Amino acid sequence: MYTAKDIRNLALLGHGGDGKSALCESMLYVTKAITRLGKRADGTTVSDFDDEEKKRQYSIKTSVIPVEFGGCKLNVLDNPGYFDFAAEIVQSLRVADAGLICLTAKSGIAVGTEKGWKSLADAGLPAMFYVSKLDEEHANFFNTFDSLRDIFGASVIPFTFPILHGEEAVGVVDLVSKKAYDVSGKEIALPAEAEEKIEEYMAELNEQVAETDEALMEKFFMEEPFTEEELLKGIKEGIRQRSVTPVFCGCAMNGLGTAALLDNLVRFAPSPLEGKPAVRVDEEGKESEFPLNPDGPATAFVFNTVADQYGKNSYFKVLSGNIEDTMTVVNARTGDNEKLGNTFFPKGKDNAKTAKVCCGDIGVFTKLASVRTGDTLCQPGKLVTIKPMTYAEPCYRMAIYAKTKGQEDKVAAGLVKLNEEDASFTYGNDPETKEMIIAGVCDIHLSVIIAKLLSKYKVEAELRPAKIAYRETIKKKVEIHGRHKKQSGGHGQFGDVYIRFEPQSESEDMIFADETVGGCVPKNFIPSVEKGLRNCIGKGVLAGYPVVFLKSTLYFGSYHPVDSSDMAFQTAAGIAYKEGLPTAGPTLLEPIGELKVFIPDANMGDIIGDLNKRRGRVMGMNPDPDNRGWQIVEAEVPMGEMSSYAIDLRSMSQGRGSYSLKFVRYEEVPQINQAKIIEDAKKADEE
To answer: What global pTM score does this model have?
Structure first.
């Protein structure tokens, strides 16, 4: 059994296709946890075990890969590289103590590299780089390292670098131990050219280490060499403070550099005891640190949920004490008791049964029905609430329909289950458009949800563009006479009203006024006139959208002492509405959204041009205070023009940009655009 000091929790980040899952395979193979390397193309990797991942050949969920090496257990959290699944990274960074960002020696820094760095910086976690695929043609570690240094600063230092024979990487040099290793991990003689590089990189490392401690800084300026103990302690502290950012290298397919990487991670990556403390939230919402405590009451934080055909798997990290499978714990969110029993160590799809998970380690509970991502499980009487995850607001909205009529309830039930697994998407009925709306990060995110509805819950659904909640109003004042007279033997029906319709700006809701005098319409029938009008304003005369900013004034009328009734006056008011509004200059209104786009300076021209095409008005452009070289563009834009914006922004900014959009008000649709909206509404009505 490992203890907290022997554990390393490491989040694996980077762009899609940059070798994260392959590195996990290499780590497992080098440590003899598997006997052959799995391949993504064959669907045989340990970390991509979900059917949807095998089919698509990229990661969708974070998988936990335990690697045992050098007396330590490394819990490697292999995260998806596609930005549609960024919520998985948010979750894994809550339990990781450091991050390793993968990039390739051929392609160099990608958008995922930058995003990985920013995610770790925002989380306040140490960052390290792994330059992969040294065996690819035109791979160049040293060019890639120079790019890393240019973008991320002087803290970036190569802890391992390749030994080249021509262009082929035949070994790696470990900077700190000053040793060289071949592809099989066997120690070899240090090449002469490597000694120069060791001297250069060690000088840079010493300078960064000196910044971690005043005594070391003094020694550095006096040009006194650090002792081995001082250097190793300084490196660990430098990594923890983010003043030292190690760069490792290797090739997952032949194992080059994997053992050297593992050795360095064991020596220098922080243990959970040295990592950033969790954050607890009290009943008043105040936040405070919750340091890891092996001797405290048992406390576990659930950071991820995966549902399969057998039930629900709740992945957790122990933050205090130990979790044992005989325990009963309390869910701090619900107050419910949860009896444990099915407790495992995760390893991709395979879980290893365990009776105990120690403080700082990661485990998985199965079949805890009421537990969801973000919950804190505590010892009875010792309740704490760990701050749950917050996700970026999902902006890509689509309507979701069952392909087979009558299966709407099955779609809704499936979304409830999938939302337990992925809390980063939202869903719900839009009361205006009568559609079920699902919102996610982008198109790939929602397509995965649709695929999972079919594979896990056997319900076929499809996505359609969400309808826009337009409105109608009038621009002119008109006076109209509405009369309802019907004689059919016995009592007849008689209602007679004169109504003035005019625009108003005080309230979106209709304002009703009574200006009748002399009892031309009896007082008891005036509410009937108002009710008749309110029954009508839900359907406008242009395209059937609700009518807003309307004032209706009853100023004259007449009645019959026997035939007048509540219903007769309601009907008369409806006749006045239907005859009067088409002559009052009816027009369409569209929802306008307040848009904020966060983009690099280089994309500014494309973004502004695109907003102009969407009839947007740019209200301001300001430098992003949190990101040097970035801009925040603020604009007002019709929400009907924004259905594909998530996809288009991703294309224009190569995945770097992000945005938020919220409704602010309604504005008149330009006449040139009204005809198409009216035509589409009529078609939909006919269907």
So the answer is: 0.87
